[in-house]
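wait is this the right file?? whatever heres the structure
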């Protein structure tokens, strides 16, 4: 996953002594590197696949199609199975690796997983930068994907365990922020390196080595988390480590809770089977639907292929890459808006506002592209203001995503499960996200060729469905402590049918009031 496994412990109602120490600060930097490598990859491939030298070397038929402006339909000029494999192979590899990584993370510790992640990623970046043929390119991408699978599985777990619980929520969104920064850096570098005619693309692909080295070195110098030490039976070491990272001696309460949590999770022999219990049905449905819908917003059409898309609608190489930089910048800024507002305005209002905004601007983009380009994709004399308007519409659409489905797509699934099944549920969230990211990366270019400008309407349809889904089915989870989440389901008209009375702890029953709200300041506004 990207973001996911950071649990929002900030609301779990306990107060452990401790402060934000240098170790914890370093772990934040690591989290940043984890998000960066993921974002860098999302952002780099589109720009590289629009560089003429790269296409000429590896995908000569696409290059020729692109050069002959007449004849081929504009919408189809990038359509090549090999070219899409270049982008999408990474996500399939990441999906496979994240499954393997969950065992490595548990048995060998978080550091080991991060180390493997950094190593695989580094090797992948070097092979890509040195590539002589398509096979080398794809092997490189697969290794990068393995690296991302390992890093995305272990870094957020590491982070949530190192962070003082009061900072976990913010760190969750920080991960998404660094993904967007990674995308922007990639867009900027593509813009710069595209000017270096013969080997610019090598620099773009090789640049991934930098964030990879940060993870690699980080994994070597950082300590193991107390949770991982306890999980592997090293209690004394865990206690020492906890003192060190919290910067205080009095860590007994937290230590006992960590031991208890570890015991409890060992008792759940079959978390996957437990997840199928009726009481977990509501959050389970969200942990599948949210990542699926996140990808069906169509965001990665823009993130992966913005330069290709802009070229398709008639921009020159430079203008295409510049436009990708602009959408990348909007993506970062709008994510900051969400970090600021998520605990004030709530998840539902962000989801709903973002959905409506994306819908309106997807329709406008369709109308504007369709009007000038029709089904042949050939536009004569596209006025500059027209092109700028299309970029502006795409930016507003991206902003709508970046303050709603972007960060919330990772936050909400991570805060709705009780501890005993949380990690299994997170794997589902991550896997569904990767499967749909892969599918969209694979399907975009053939879809653009087949559906022409109607492609945006395809995604707009899903935006309508997901917005209605959220409106009717998602209860507000803002300011609700994780262990009280069960009340949220119980108070919901539809989901209450899934929650038997006996799973609600007696102390929580007093908090419920008639008509369905939590009765104190944690109320669902
Ligand atoms: C999504 C990615 C997407 C990125 C864009 C993330 O939340 O999982 O697929 O590319 O946001 O900022």
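ok assuming it is, sequence goes like this
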């Amino acid at each position: 996953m990207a973001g996911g496994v950071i649990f929002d412990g900030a609301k779990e109602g306990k107060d452990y002594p401790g402060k934000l120490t240098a170790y914890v600060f370093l772990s934040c930097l690591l989290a940043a590197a984890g998000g960066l490598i993921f974002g860098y990859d999302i952002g780099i491939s589109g720009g590289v696949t629009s560089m003429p030298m790269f296409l000429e070397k590896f995908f000569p038929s696409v290059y020729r199609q692109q050069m002959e402006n007449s004849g081929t339909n504009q919408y189809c000029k990038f359509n090549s199975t090999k070219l899409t494999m270049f982008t999408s192979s990474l996500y399939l590899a990441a999906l496979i690796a994240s499954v393997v990584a969950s065992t490595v993370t548990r048995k060998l510790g978080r550091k080991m997983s991060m180390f493997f992640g950094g190593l695989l990623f580094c090797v992948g970046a070097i092979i890509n930068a040195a590539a002589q043929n398509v096979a080398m390119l794809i092997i490189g991408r697969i290794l990068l994907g393995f690296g991302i699978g390992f890093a995305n599985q272990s870094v957020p777990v590491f982070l949530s365990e190192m962070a003082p619980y009061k900072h976990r929520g913010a760190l969750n969104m920080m991960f998404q922020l660094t993904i967007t920064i990674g995308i922007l850096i990639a867009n900027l570098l593509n813009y710069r390196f595209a000017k270096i005619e013969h080997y610019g693309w090598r620099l773009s692909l090789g640049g991934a080595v930098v964030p990879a080295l940060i993870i690699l070195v980080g994994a070597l110098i950082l300590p193991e988390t107390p949770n991982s030490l306890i999980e592997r039976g090293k209690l004394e070491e865990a206690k020492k480590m906890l003192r060190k990272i919290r910067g205080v001696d009095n860590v007994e309460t937290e230590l006992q809770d960590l031991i208890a949590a570890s015991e409890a999770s060992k008792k759940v022999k079959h978390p996957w089977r437990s997840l199928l219990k009726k009481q977990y049905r509501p959050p389970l449905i969200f942990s599948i639907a949210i990542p699926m819908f996140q990808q069906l917003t169509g965001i990665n059409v823009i993130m992966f292929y913005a330069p290709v898309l802009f070229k398709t609608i008639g921009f020159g190489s430079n203008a295409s890459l510049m436009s990708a930089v602009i959408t990348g910048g909007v993506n970062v800024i709008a994510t900051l808006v969400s970090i600021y507002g998520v605990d004030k305005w709530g998840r539902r209002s962000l989801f709903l506002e973002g959905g409506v905004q994306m819908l309106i601007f997807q329709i406008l983009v369709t109308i504007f592209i369709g009007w000038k380009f029709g089904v042949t994709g050939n536009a004569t004399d596209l006025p500059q203001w027209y092109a700028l308007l299309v970029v502006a519409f795409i930016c507003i659409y991206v902003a709508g995503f970046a303050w709603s489905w972007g960060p919330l797509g990772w936050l909400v699934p991570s805060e709705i499960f009780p501890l005993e099944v949380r990690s299994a549920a997170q794997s589902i969230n991550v896997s569904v996200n990767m499967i749909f990211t892969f599918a969209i990366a694979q399907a975009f270019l053939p879809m653009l060729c087949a559906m022409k400008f109607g492609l945006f309407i395809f995604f707009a349809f899903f935006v309508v469905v997901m917005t209605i889904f959220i409106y009717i089915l998602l209860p507000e989870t803002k300011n609700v402590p994780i262990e009280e989440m069960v009340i949220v389901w119980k108070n919901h008209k539809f989901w209450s049918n899934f929650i038997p009375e006996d799973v609600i702890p007696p102390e929580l029953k007093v908090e419920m009031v008639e008509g369905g709200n939590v009765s104190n300041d944690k109320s669902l506004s």
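Residues 310 and 316 are 8 Å apart (CA to CA). so i think its the right one actually
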